[in-house]
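Here is the promised in-class demo. Please do not try to memorize the tokens; focus on the logic of going from shape to residues.
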């Protein structure tokens, strides 16, 4: 089962005036990877993906 939380936000990355979004993939309370990319939009997307293993 995958739980996705999507939050609209905006901010500056390294104070260069560009907006950013962060994508985190978390499995078993561990961060598999963090992808940080800079975008040139007014809003940024913070997406957090939770994955559960059900047997």
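The designed amino acids, position by position:
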């Amino acid at each position: 089962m995958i739980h996705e939380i999507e939050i609209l936000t905006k901010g500056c990355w390294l104070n260069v005036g560009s907006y950013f979004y962060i994508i985190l993939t978390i499995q078993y309370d561990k961060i598999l990877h963090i992808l940080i990319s800079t975008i040139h939009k007014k809003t940024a997307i913070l997406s957090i993906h939770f994955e559960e293993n059900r047997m």
